[in-house]
Amino acid sequence: MTVTAQDVRAAAPANAPEDVVEFAIRIAELGKPEKVYFADGSDEEWDRLTTEMVESGMFTRLNPEKRPNSFLARSLPSDVARVESRTYICSEKEEDAGPTNNWYDPAEMKAILNEKFDGTYAGRTMYVIPFSMGPLGGPISQLGIEITDSPYVVVNMRIMARIGTKAMDLINEGRTWVPAVHSVGAPLAPGQEDTTWPCNEEKYITHFPETNEIWSYGSGYGGNALLGKKCYALRIASTMARRDSWMAEHMLILRLTDEKSGKQYHVTAAFPSACGKTNLAMLQPTIEGYKVETVGDDIAWMRQGEDGRLRAINPEAGFFGVAPGTSYKTNPMAMETMKANTIFTNVALTDDGDVWWEGIDAEMPEHLIDWLGNDFTPADAAEGKKAAHPNSRFTTPASQCPIICPDWEAPEGVAIDAILFGGRRASNVPLVAEQYSPAHGVFIGASVASEVTAAATDVKAGSLRHDPFAMLPFCGYNMADYWGHWLELQEQLGESFPKVYQVNWFRKDEDGKFLWPGYGDNSRVLDWIVRRASGEVEGIEGVTGIYPKREDFNLEGAGVSEADWDKMYDIDPDAWAAEMDDTEQYFSQFGDRVPAAIREELAKFRERIAAA
Ligand code: GTP
Ligand code: MN
Ligand code: MN
């Protein structure tokens, strides 16, 4: 039994405009689902879907006394992270996707997708999810419709975006929306029993930047399947932003309040996946006199406000955070946020029905069910096995964060005072450095390199890779043109464009020990940055930027010795010369699309090395 056009019309709510209904009919005719359902975003819908998923075995309900209204999902081992090698930018011209993206001809990709999606929903329900990225109706916000055959996607989208009736109302007002089509790629033959994590070994995560379309096939994992997030809010939005003079960035947003003066600062920071955005966004300052509040932990959309300043919103409504390493010690606010109403994916299950992962506060119990669904004991841990997958995640409502900023849903966003770029660097990069000039700021972003983490399946963890602006996997167009876009916006905003700072929490000493305590102590770096940005303190002109004078930097109680400080600021000219050779080599793949200002910054960098 397959859904007909008539069934789709009957299922559509009264406020669904004709173009949405026609889109749903077209996808239903292609995917051939057994049922069709339009999501309204209600509590009742959540209860029904989560209950159905518990019954089907896709979800385990956690102990309501420990973790109310929360669930655990276990994926297949082949579907645990983003798949960069299967992520495509389908622009008309290959050079518009650029050398760092996988490019595919749009017409050819459409032909592949038409074949893959033909009957892909068989035996399943097709869910139609209207959603808003950003506060409903806000001037920086954008709308979309995701169609999917995965209830896991519906309930995760409900946490991560504003879904349902109100988003459909806005679409009904005639605002533009992005069509986003998803399938796990596992049609069911009549009578065939479903698995607990349907997906397909073959995956296609595809983007059509010129027509603002997203098609994703074969994966149920967050970054590949929750299409509002990386696919829309970064890849498609970055191309929309370029056309319309705004910015879509892989950045957290936080508010720092100087409690003495009452002055508020807003900071955004771009770090590659699993390099500390969620942690910094929820930081608990270890120094007196400051308060941090969270606006967003992963994505920032920024646009010049009516006051001329760069304003940022968080397009998301929830946090899709890395679980391992998260604890009351490292990120208490994340722990508080996920006390209820949270979906966990690929963490371990305790015998009393709660969650566990490596690095959580509680010691490893004598018995767990690991992320693969197997028994797990300390003997397994002794063999080096992990009970939770290194990229296991929590999906949790941002509104539950105890330090969520009162203005986190301000439609016009918050005015940004400083922009940070960082990565995971055991050597070379010092704790914090300020740009010499706006173009140097863009150069700092463009030359980010970071040790690879577990956030994508198909790149080797631990090795160093270039990740400009932490956008390598997320920029929807030619990366060198993106640098040019940054330079243009800097020019457009002039003096009000925030200063850029390069930071590194991960430098190690010769014994492999972190030189910087990190986490809450990163408030010390923020303290220096805002004092520096407001012209209170002078800096030292260094090779990579302007460094703090140690006496200006609050190290009281940090446990960082003078020797450690010096090691963090040890600039080896030979190592930096080699790094610049490598950066130049990296830039060369973009040919003459690299903006002249960026080439000049590289030359100036070399001069500073020579003078060091
Ligand atoms: P995505 O959500 O994938 O984009 O990653 P993210 O940038 O939000 O990373 P997250 O904050 O989840 O941090 C990932 C890992 O970095 C965790 O294992 C943290 O414990 C670790 N980490 C975060 N901040 C610090 C820090 O200041 N110092 C050290 N040493 N580790 C940190
Ligand atoms: Mn991210
Ligand atoms: Mn994060």
Would you give an account of this structure?
Helix 13 packs antiparallel against helix 14 (about 480-495). Strand 10 (about 205-210) and strand 11 (about 215) form a beta hairpin. With about 600 residues, the chain is of the alpha+beta class. It is built from 18 helices and 32 strands. The protein is globular and about 75 Å long. Strands 1, 4, 5, 6, 7, 8, 9, 10 and 11 form a nine-stranded mixed β-sheet that branches. It has a six-stranded mixed β-sheet with strand order 15-13-14-26-30-27, sandwiched between helices. Bound molecules: guanosine-5'-triphosphate (GTP) and manganese (II) ion (2 copies). One manganese (II) ion binds near residues 278 and 321.
Question: What key phrases describe this protein's structure?
Answer:
binds guanosine-5'-triphosphate; 18 helices; nine-stranded mixed β-sheet; 32 strands; globular; binds manganese (II) ion; 612 residues; alpha+beta
Q: Got a strand count?
A: 32
Q: Name the bound molecules.
A: guanosine-5'-triphosphate, manganese (II) ion
Helicity level: 25-40%
Gross morphology is globular
Radius of gyration: 24 Å
> Total helix count?
18
Mean pLDDT: 96
- Contiguous uncertain segments of 5+ residues: none
Strand content: 15-25%
> Could you give the distance between the termini?
74 Å
Give the quaternary arrangement of the chains. single chain
Main β sheet profile: 9 strands, mixed
Which structural class do the helices and strands define?
Answer: alpha+beta
GO molecular function: GTP binding; kinase activity; manganese ion binding; phosphoenolpyruvate carboxykinase (GTP) activity
Main location: cytoplasm
Cofactor: Mn(2+)
Function: Catalyzes the conversion of oxaloacetate (OAA) to phosphoenolpyruvate (PEP), the rate-limiting step in the metabolic pathway that produces glucose from lactate and other precursors derived from the citric acid cycle.
